UniProtKB/TrEMBL annotation:
CDD domains for the chain: MATE_yoeA_like
Transmembrane segments: 21-42, 62-84, 105-129, 141-161, 173-191, 203-225, 256-276, 296-317, 329-349, 369-388, 395-416, 428-448
Protein name, entry field: MATE family efflux transporter
Pfam annotation, one family: MatE
Entry membrane topology: Multi-pass membrane protein
InterPro entries found in the cross-reference section: MATE_fam, MdtK-like, Membrane_Transporter-Flippase
Localization, UniProt: Cell membrane
Species the sequence originates in: Paenibacillus germinis
C-alpha cells in the first residue's frame, strides 16, 4: 500500500464548518483575481508612460489573443479540478494522480503546439484581427514573446487548478503574488533599460511577463516537491505520465462547454460594445468605465463560484449530498453578503468612483453614474446563478449552464438591448443586465431543483 492511501489527503473539504471553509477557501481566489487585474492595469500604465498610445494599441491586440488562449484552457483546467476533487472526496488518491499525470502530459503537448503555432503565425493572426499598420510590427514582437511563454503559462494554470481541486487555494495565491510582483517590477526596467537591464521597448514588457511566469512556475514546482505535496509525481509514479485517453476525452468533453461559457460572455460583451458605440464616444467611454467597475464587482461571485465547485466536487466524490446542498445555499448567502456590500459602497460613492476614470468635463460621468445605478445591483443575481452553476458543474453536468448562458446573454440580453432600445431608448441597454441575469438565475435554480444533474458523471468508467 502506498503512503498516499494510508494517509488522509489534505486539506479535506468534506468536513468542518461550511461557511468558514468556504470563505477561507474563496478569499485567496478572490485576491488572486484582483491581483491579476491590477497587474494588467499597472503594466498598461508603464507601457502608456514609456511607449505611448502605439505601445498600448499593440499590447491590447495581443491581450485579446491571450484572453482567447486562457479561455480555451480554462474549461479543461476546471474539468481537472472537478475530477481531482471527486476522486479525493472518494479517497481515490491514485485515481487523482492519474488525472494529474495525464493532464500534465496533455497540457505540455498542447502548450508546445500552441507556442509553435503562435511563433510561426503571429503576423498572420494579427493581420486577421485588422491590427493598425502603424503598430503591427510592435504587436508582432510582443505577441511572439508572449507565445514563447505559453508552456509556462499553461503549466502554471494547470498546477493552480490541481492545488485548488485538492483543497489548497493559498499556495496558488502566493505564487500569483510573486509572478505579479516580478512582472510589475521588471516591466519598466526592461522597457526603459534601467540600471544593468537592456532597453528593449515593447519587447521588454513581454519579456518581463515571460520571466515572471517562468520563475514563478519553476519555484512553485520546487516548493511542492520540497513540501512533499501528496499529488506530486514521484519516481514510482512516472508510468502515470502518459496519455490516458479516457481521462483526455473527459477533460475535453467536460472542459469544452466550460471554456465556451467564457466565449459566450465575451461575444455578448463585444456585441453590446458595438451597440453602445452607435450612441457616441461619451456613451462608449461611460460604458467602458462601468464595465471596468463591474469587473471588480463580479470578483467575489467568481471566487465563490470557483470555491463551491472544488468543495462540492469533493463532497460529491464522498457521497455527501446533504453537505453539497448546504454548500450551495451557503455559497449563495456568502455571495449576497459580499457582493451586496460592494454594491452598497459603490452606490454611496458612485460619482466619485466614476470620476476617478473620466475627465470632469462632458456628459460621460453622468452617463456612467446612471449605468451603475441600473446595473450594479444585478451582479448580486449574477452571483446567485454563478454559484448554483458551479455546484451543478461539479457533478459533471456542464452543458446545461452553457445553454443557460447562451439563452440569457445572446437570446435575451442582445435582442432586448438592440430591438427594444430602438423603441424605448438608451436605458433598455442597461436594463438588459438585470433581466438577463434574472433569467439565468431562474433557469439554473429550476435545474438545480428539478434537473437530473446529480446523475451526471465525470468518468463513465475507469481508464
Amino acid at each position: 500500500m502506498s503512503e498516499n492511501t494510508t494517509k488522509k489527503p489534505r486539506p479535506s473539504l468534506t468536513e468542518g464548518p461550511i461557511a468558514k471553509t468556504l470563505i477561507l477557501f474563496s478569499l485567496p481566489i478572490l485576491l488572486g483575481n484582483v491581483l491579476q487585474t491590477l497587474n494588467g492595469s499597472i503594466n498598461a500604465i508603464w507601457i502608456g508612460k514609456y511607449l505611448g498610445e502605439g505601445g498600448l494599441a499593440a499590447t491590447s491586440n495581443a491581450n485579446i489573443i491571450m484572453f482567447f488562449l486562457i479561455s480555451s484552457i480554462f474549461g479543461i483546467a476546471m474539468a481537472a479540478v472537478i475530477m481531482i476533487g471527486q476522486n479525493l472526496g472518494g479517497q481515490k488518491v491514485e485515481e487523482a494522480k492519474k488525472v494529474v499525470g495525464t493532464s500534465a502530459v496533455f497540457f505540455l503537448i498542447l502548450s508546445i503546439v500552441v507556442a509553435l503555432f503562435g511563433l510561426l503565425f503571429s503576423h498572420t493572426i494579427l493581420g486577421w484581427m485588422n491590427t493598425p499598420a502603424d503598430v503591427k510590427d510592435l504587436a508582432v514582437t510582443y505577441t511572439r514573446i508572449i507565445f514563447a511563454g505559453v508552456p509556462f503559462m499553461f503549466g502554471f494554470n494547470l498546477i493552480m487548478a490541481i492545488l485548488r481541486g485538492s483543497g489548497d487555494a493559498k499556495t496558488p495565491f502566493y505564487f500569483l503574488l510573486l509572478s505579479a510582483a516580478l512582472d510589475i517590477v521588471l516591466n519598466p526596467l526592461l522597457i526603459q533599460g534601467m540600471g544593468p537591464f537592456p532597453k528593449m521597448g515593447i519587447a521588454g514588457s513581454a519579456v518581463a511577463t515571460f520571466v515572471a511566469q517562468l520563475i514563478s512556475f519553476v519555484l512553485l514546482i520546487v516548493y511542492l516537491y520540497q513540501k512533499k505535496y501528496f499529488l506530486r509525481i514521484t519516481k514510482k509514479d512516472i508510468p502515470l505520465l502518459r496519455i490516458n485517453w479516457m481521462i483526455i476525452r473527459t477533460l475535453i468533453q467536460k472542459g469544452l462547454p466550460m471554456g465556451l461559457n467564457m466565449v459566450v460572455v465575451s461575444l455578448s460583451n463585444l456585441i453590446l460594445i458595438h451597440l453602445v458605440n452607435s450612441y457616441g464616444s461619451e456613451s462608449t467611454a461611460a460604458f467602458g468605465v462601468a464595465m471596468q467597475i463591474s469587473s471588480y464587482v463580479q470578483m467575489p461571485a467568481m471566487a465563490i463560484g470557483g470555491a463551491v465547485t472544488s468543495m462540492a466536487a469533493q463532497n460529491i466524490g464522498a457521497g455527501k449530498w446533504d453537505r453539497v446542498n448546504r454548500i450551495t445555499w451557503t455559497g449563495v448567502g456568502v455571495n449576497i453578503m459580499m457582493t451586496g456590500l460592494i454594491v452598497v459602497l459603490l452606490h454611496l460613492f458612485n460619482r466619485e468612483v466614476v470620476s476617478f476614470f473620466l475627465p470632469p468635463e462632458g456628459k460621460a460621468i453622468a452617463i456612467g453614474v446612471h449605468i451603475n445605478n441600473i446595473t450594479l445591483w444585478s451582479f448580486i443575481i449574477f452571483g446567485v446563478f454563478n454559484v448554483v452553476a458551479g455546484v451543478v458543474r461539479s457533478a459533471g453536468a456542464v452543458v446545461f449552464p452553457l445553454i443557460v448562458a447562451f439563452i440569457a446573454l445572446l437570446l435575451v440580453r442582445i435582442p432586448l438591448a438592440t430591438v427594444l432600445a430602438n423603441k424605448y431608448g438608451f436605458d433598455v441597454i442597461w436594463w438588459s443586465f438585470p433581466v438577463s441575469f434574472s433569467v439565468a438565475a431562474a433557469l439554473n435554480l429550476l435545474y438545480y431543483r428539478f434537473g437530473k444533474w446529480k446523475q451526471a458523471r465525470m468518468l463513465t468508467s475507469r481508464g
